[in-house]
Specification:
Order of helices and strands: EEEHEEHHE
Structural class: alpha+beta
Largest sheet: 3 strands, antiparallel
Protein name: OsmC family protein
Number of strands: 6
Radius of gyration: 17 Å
Oligomer: single chain
Strand content: 25-35%
Helix content: 25-40%
Pfam families: OsmC
Amino acid sequence: MGTTNTVITTWKKNMQFHSTNPAGELIIDASPDDGGNGDGLRPKALMLSALAGCSGLDVASMIKKMKLDVEDFRIDIHAELTDEHPKYYNKVTVEYHFYGTDLAEKKLQRAVDLSVETYCGVMEMFRRFAEVKIETIFHNS
């Protein structure tokens, strides 16, 4: 049997919820346009943070293991929602940005590929409902 994660999410007031996570907690709230106060994170955007975080951890781990010299690393995600309810992300572009002098581009690309194709479970979940496009951009200084 696989691992089970449990999060407990409690209604605070109006459109706000407090949610636990195995390593912390966060506030979820709707935007003022949707009747909330805008004081918390948005659920759909949290999914994008989870995707970036999951893949980012994989890549950071490989950068460390391969002893690659990377000054900075950033993941930008652009996601398109469907027009009809229930609205969900149907097109997602994940951009991996690497910054440094003399970046080991082939090795970094391999790290991205391994995360995308093998290790990142959140990426696999996204592939079940969205067209996912991957881009790797090297910023050599």
